[in-house]
Design brief:
This protein has 446 residues and is mostly helical. It contains 22 helices and 6 strands. Helix 5 packs across helix 7 and helix 15 runs parallel beside helix 21.
């Protein structure tokens, strides 16, 4: 039994350069482990990679972030780069090219063999965020007229595929006929026709389908691979689950950024100018909504000047409304993103959000009313505060439901714009309810 090698031992081995020993252990090491070693000591990257085979280096480059792939490749000669690119899957090469300038793209394409170059150019024609942009053309398709024997003989010669656990059966024109598992092939008699063991109910995605919808399909069916087809059901390629995991992480990050009104491209290590460009437009938008709330306050200046304690309490009313609205819109935006909110359950979810707003508003309203009454020593002051809190939290939940739904109907990303509108509603209504009620009850507050 082989002994488990630690990361420190692996690093020492790679730096020491004992090629025979490296060759013996390296294929049991996941490329991510070596990539982590490079991240820990970037200056040692050339030495860590120097004695590795083209296939292993290709695996490391594939595991790197898209904007890091090219930096790793540049550490090698042009000839070595060609050999590494030949070992990489075509969808990963396409992702690499998508991060490069035109001249750099041409240089990489020139290092590919003619067949791979044409396949990559075809992949580049598909939208980056579509099924076509995610797929690879390296898959094994089995002819429908073949027997199991002919299929097994063909599989022994085929090595350029992402996975062979599931095989797709096509006719001579590459029209998708069904899917068959490797288990069914090896357990069937040699003279069995492939169509006899083929499942015709294959789930596929169209090349122009958005990557987020593709991810939902993978999640729904629990697949590890899915075929990509055109309008006439011709098989174009396959998408594997590792690509979908990247999409899900990307979409989740994008949603989180948008809820915070931050551009999806911004990262923790973004440059000053990039971060400013990402954030400033939304800060300016928030400024205008804040001015709107300030205008409401200015309308009640006379009331505030007579009961100064109102200025102490009113930020609590608006702040709690904002929190309630954010909770509601977060659930609704996520439901829209996952397809969980539909026409069939929309009314039920609305009733639930109204109920949550009323009950939470009642509880928080009673608490803040009690505190305000003790603070001011006036039961009417507490009653005004409690009613304003109840109304604002209830309407905050309603706004948290309707605003993302309406934005999606208008083809505006709910995750991007909902927060600004919900905050505006809760601030304006919070001040309006609280100061309006206070004005109505002013004789009892003096």
């Amino acid at each position: 039994m082989k002994r488990k090698i630690t990361n420190e031992e692996l690093k020492h081995l790679l730096l020491r350069g004992d090629e025979a020993e490296i060759k013996e252990v390296i294929f049991d090491i996941h490329p991510v482990v070596i990539l982590d070693l490079i991240h820990e000591d970037e200056e040692a990257a050339p030495q860590l990679l120097a004695h590795l085979s083209d296939e292993v280096i290709a695996g490391i480059v594939e595991e790197a972030d898209d904007d890091e792939k090219y930096e790793l490749l540049k550490q090698f000669s042009d000839v070595k780069q060609s050999h590494i690119l030949e070992e990489m899957s075509l969808d990963e090469v396409t992702d690499l090219l998508g991060e490069l300038e035109d001249e750099e793209q041409k240089a990489i394409l020139a290092k590919l063999n003619r067949e791979d170059r044409e396949d990559v150019k075809e992949l580049l024609t598909y939208g980056e965020d579509t099924a076509g942009g995610l797929m690879t053309t390296e898959f094994i398709s089995i002819r429908a007229k073949n027997t199991v024997r002919q299929t097994l003989e063909y599989l022994q010669k085929s090595t350029d595929a992402e996975t062979t656990y599931y095989l797709y059966v096509t006719d001579r024109s590459q029209v998708l006929k069904g899917v068959v598992s490797l288990r069914d092939i090896v357990s069937s008699p040699f003279d069995t026709n492939m169509l006899e063991i083929t499942n015709p109910n294959v789930i596929s995605v169209r090349y122009d389908e958005d990557q987020e919808q593709v991810a939902k399909t993978f999640e729904k069916y629990g697949f590890v691979m899915m075929p990509v087809v055109d309008e006439e059901n011709h098989m174009l390629g396959v998408i594997t689950v590792d690509d979908i995991m990247d999409v899900m992480q990307e979409e989740m990050t994008e949603d989180i950024h948008r809820l915070g009104q931050v551009g999806k491209e911004e990262r923790i290590d973004s440059k000053l100018g990039e971060s400013l460009k990402s954030r400033l437009p939304w800060l300016v938008t928030n400024l205008f909504t804040a001015v709107l709330a300030a205008m409401v306050i200015s309308y009640f200046e006379g009331t505030i000047s007579q009961v100064v304690s109102l200025a102490t309490i009113m930020p609590i009313v608006t702040g709690m409304g904002g929190n309630a609205g954010t909770q509601s819109l977060t659930i609704v935006v996520r439901g829209l993103s996952l397809g969980e909110l539909s026409k069939e359950n929309a009314l039920r979810i609305l009733r639930k959000e109204i109920g949550v707003g009323m009950l939470s508003g009642l509880v928080i309203g009673i608490l803040i009313a009690s505190g305000a009454m003790l603070f001011e020593g006036n039961p009417v002051f507490g009653l005004v505060t409690g009613i304003a809190m109840f109304l604002n939290m209830m309407l905050a939940n309603i706004a948290g439901y309707f605003i993302p739904v309406v934005l999606e109907k208008c083809h505006v990303d709910p995750a991007l714009a909902s927060g600004v509108f919900v905050t505006t509603v809760t601030d304006v209504l919070g001040f309006l309810f609280f100061l309006g009620l206070a004005t109505m009850a002013l004789p009892y507050l003096l």
